[in-house]
Specification:
- The chain is an alpha/beta fold and 693 residues long.
- Among the domains are: 1-43 and 153-177, DNA polymerase, domain 1 (Orthogonal Bundle), CATH 1.10.150; 48-141, Beta Barrel (OB fold (Dihydrolipoamide Acetyltransferase, E2P)), CATH 2.40.50.140; 249-279 and 293-420, Rossmann fold; 451-609, P-loop containing nucleotide triphosphate hydrolases (Rossmann fold, 3-Layer(aba) Sandwich).
- The chain is built from 22 helices and 22 strands.
- It has a 7-stranded mixed sheet with strand order 6-7-4-3-2-5-8.
- Strand 21 (556-562), helix 18 and strand 22 (587-591) form a beta-alpha-beta unit.
- It is globular.
- The chain starts with 16 loop residues before the first helix and ends in a 10-residue tail after the last helix.
Amino acid sequence: MDESPLLTPAQFLPGVGPFRAECLARLGISTVEDLLWNLPRDLLDLSEVRGLGDLEPDVLQTVRGRVVELEDRRISGGRRMVGVLVDCGDGFLRGTWFNQAWILGKLSHDDAVLFSGKPKRRAGRWEMTHPRVQSIDDDDLEAHGGLLPKYALTDGLTMDVMRRIAREAVERFVEHVVDPLPSAWRERFQVTGLAEALTCVHRPTTLEEFHRARRRLVFDDLVEFQLAMALRRRAWKQSGTAPLLPLTAKIDSRIRLRFPFQFTAGQERAIEEIVADLGSEQAMHRLLQADVGAGKTAVAVYVMLVAVAAGQQTVLMAPTELLARQHWQTIESLLEGSRVERMLLTGRLRAPERTAALESIAAGDVQLVVGTHAVIQEDVRFRSLGLAVIDEQHKFGVVQRSRFSDAETTATPHVLVMTATPIPRSICLTQFGDLDATVIDDLPPGRQPVVTSVIRDETTREQAWQFVRGQVESGRQAFVVCPRIDASEETGEGMGVEQTWQRLQEQELSGLSVGIVHGRLDAEAKVEAMDAFRDGRTHVLVATTVVEVGVDVPNATLMVVYQAERFGLSQLHQLRGRIGRGAYQGYCFLMAGREDESVAARLEVLDQHADGFSVAEADFLLRGPGDVLGVRQHGDLPLRVADLVADRELLEETRTIAFDLVRTGEIDCEEAGPLHRRVLERFGKLMELPQTG
């Protein structure tokens, strides 16, 4: 087969050459195809830019020019006025802002800018009050009207050069682009052709045309990803039989006797959905999510006991030894006096102990195992693993479920994945899109929302510490959370956990027993610190986010978070979920390290929302997917066009389309061949998809 012209090295395009090819390589561009898919990161609209001679008073318009003067002064009433004078080529226009000092940080002398606003004529000169400001490249200052794509740049490439190179790639090679969507499907899904879309994105003539073209590219990006999810799910269901784990009324009654409380309605629904899966020979792959304190662990223990009652082994894997031990203690308390053989397997076991443990697991003598990643080491073999529960999967990275293997059978275990806090729907449909989903959306009766306060000044800070001291002296306990172990040398912001621990003992909490736990302590020291706090030997525990999940101390009712702006909202919600788990009201104080209105506004979300699902969505919309579960950092979402915030609606639509194409078998028909192959090329290795002929 002849090599595609799209694989032509970018170096051979007119205007590129060896030097610019090296510059392009720094942007990940080596071929013409890479250039076509190096999409604009933004669009500069010069179609409505006017000269000063064409301006109309009090009508929204846009001008462009170069900054020639910056002014900052106090006026009557103590207000601050910022003025920026712009040379527009055919005269000068002045922009004025009141109490908007941030403008000075955004603009510098000689910057090229666009001002959009309603101009007025004053003293023979045009002025705009509070215009919208957009910085532009020098190349764009002299550009003629129209829509100009804006690309990512690197040293050695100007915007004008980048646009010319992209135009060359489109004009010479876009006709060689193969559209993976059959024409009938393009009409059915109401999307434009791929070559046309690439042309219009790089050379748009109208905003409507640009958005229509981008929609096609986002559609492909998302539908291919969702097809990969749907194909992986189908492959799992076809990969082998899972053991039947039936539940009888007698077994149900015996298991429930182990729990000293009644399940909530949400827990009952979750149990019903999971038990239905366990009663099938198709392996379960289910996500269980719930708010902090909603009782996911109790549901997990219940279904693990269903597996044991069916004669199968079961394992619960946690991301940290601290959390694994917390689960172990919970299970030990519930199974006290039980004949269920159980084991805690972590990396701390000495070699002889580990060898004996592995032999017991392989022989089937141990029915229930709790552990860290140690349970998926290659030398761990189960005799008959029926159910694997994975807690906090995103903290492991991509878990290879095939690591859970049997010593004697080829049966596929059922898999239940749990998350510590609710996941935004867009993340749920991508990061966990191949799993069925179960949600526990209620809390145990009597659980009160944690009272959350944002502390912004020294006076309220002192009042907060007085309140904490008073509560601790009356018998309650408190967490103090710091974002880092050491103070930041780079920014000089805040104190580290060690410094905070020292200060609290000497000042705010002097005379109280204050413990400390953080990631640099060895495992034994961490366990001792947590046990001392759990047993009440220490009143206050100063910690990093090692207390984020799995720590259950019912008497802890207070939490102070230093530099709260350094945490995501979902993480803060998870942290405050560690308190108020007993009979007493919980109080959380978020101490901002910066006096910034935007910081305070973000933290106020936690004051306004006690519901973790609402907090998760707010966090997602504010910060995007990059910090929610750390998905971008781990490369788990290799989307090249789609924005999970801006394209949420299309994500829902493409998921339905993709799963329908797999369910009906249309993805396997001959005309879908190019699309199927493209999915395998992009995601086959990442998602362990079966290859087709």
